[in-house]
Amino acid sequence: MNRLAICPGSFDPITFGHLDIIERGSKIFDQVIVAVFNNQSKSPLFSVEERKELIKEATKHLPNVTVDASDGLLIDYAYEKNAQVILRGLRAVSDFEYEMQITSMNRKLDSKIETLFMMTNNQYSFLSSSIVKEVAKYKADVTDLVPVVVAEALKNKFKK
């Protein structure tokens, strides 16, 4: 049986915290699909296509990781892809409450798809895409927070 996990997020942009979860997930599952979803409550800096390309570049060393996008419900997407697991990262207790609500709703919609939480590596526990964008906007060096390709993309976005 092919163990397939969906690692969903807005990834605007992908950070080393996201990459930590994706890399560790790729060691547990036969296949991991990193799925870009648009969070309606956020106005993204990067388009879905740009985010997909940045993730593809950042994960190219992981042969069992693919990148996709969806604008529907996560649980429908997981069902459509025949995934058994939704893989989510947790940074702190503050993430848990929000994630628990989403997981409970997903479980109500389809109880056959499990959600697996992984604690992010401690060195990334403070890291979020929002923080990265904020400091990059002021020309701060973000190369220890995001892959080089993302740091360059942020530099280019904020040149304008």
UniProtKB/TrEMBL annotation:
Binding site for substrate: 10, 42, 74, 88
Pathway in which the depicted protein is active: Cofactor biosynthesis; coenzyme A biosynthesis; CoA from (R)-pantothenate: step 4/5
Catalyzed reactions per annotation: (R)-4'-phosphopantetheine + ATP + H(+) = 3'-dephospho-CoA + diphosphate
CDD domains linked to this entry: PPAT (cd02163)
Annotated GO CC locations: cytoplasm
InterPro entries referenced in this protein's UniProt entry, alphabetically: Cyt_trans-like, PPAT, Rossmann-like_a/b/a_fold
Major location category of this protein: cytoplasm
Site (Transition state stabilizer): 18
Cellular localisation: Cytoplasm
GO molecular function: ATP binding; pantetheine-phosphate adenylyltransferase activity
Similarity field: Belongs to the bacterial CoaD family.
Database matches in NCBIfam families: coaD_prev_kdtB, cyt_tran_rel
Protein's UniProt name: Phosphopantetheine adenylyltransferase
Native source organism of the sequence: Ornithinibacillus halotolerans
Lineage, broadest ranks: Bacteria, Bacillati, Bacillota, Bacilli, Bacillales
Gene name of this polypeptide: coaD
